[in-house]
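Morning F.,

Quick status update on the modeling queue. The single chain you submitted on Monday has been processed. Sequence for confirmation:
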Amino acid sequence: MLTNAKLTISIGGMSLQHFPPNAAPADVAAAIRRDGAAIVDRAADGELIDRIVAETTPYLDATAGGSDGFSGRRTRRTGALIARSPGSRELAAHPMVLGVCDEILGANASSYQLHLTQIIDIGPGEPAQMLHRDHWAWDAFDFPLGFEVEISTIWAVQDFTDHNGATRVVPGSHLWEGGRTPTQEDTVPAEMERGSVLVYTGSVFHGGGANRSDRSRAAVNIDYCLGWLRQEENQYLSCPPEVARELPVELAKLIGYRRAAFALGYFGDTQDPIEALHPELGSRGFAIVDR
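Structure tokens below.
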């Protein structure tokens, strides 16, 4: 029987905390505030993961490896998952993850949005990725220490092990002052079962691990950011109105078809973006967004 018991994996004094799928988002968020990352075990069932694999395999097969060492020359990245994979929509709107976003991102803005979606498939022989912070996407802007603008997730398509390239995290590095550079010795592998999810802040140092196995290691990467920041993946091209119109309304709003902050994102005569999809739901004028 599942309980709210927590498991902590510790290596060299550093650790990542594991939670069962029924854990309270507030508890997961508390661990993330402390360590920069946490793992929710078996948050998605095997049937859903199988569906996502089936839906995305044709696109992944058509994707080339990266063009540089950071992207990974033996790593394929396939995006536009909201349009391409109905199963991925369930992960993007997962109540546990959105609950964590409410706790962490909701403290810093009136709204948040989908930032990017992609399959990351690390091929055999790929070396460890350079350790980095995801929030460097915004021109490496020096956000105030402790002010989180991004929550990222890595969903395990296969079991994640140290041997097959599990994402490596530097626990506590989200609280480091500028100028401190981590090494691989500072990292711990986010080892977890298939269907589990690593949830971490945009400020924590991490990177894909070296894949020393003879098989690819795949994951679904879905990230979220504050509503007043530009999204890394352009959702309006990846999921244009004719596709977004068929989504559940709340998911359409999550990917960006809504105003943010006071009036960001309006179109025409101060119209709410949701009106482009569903005219009956639109509103006009400027107002603080009620998430």
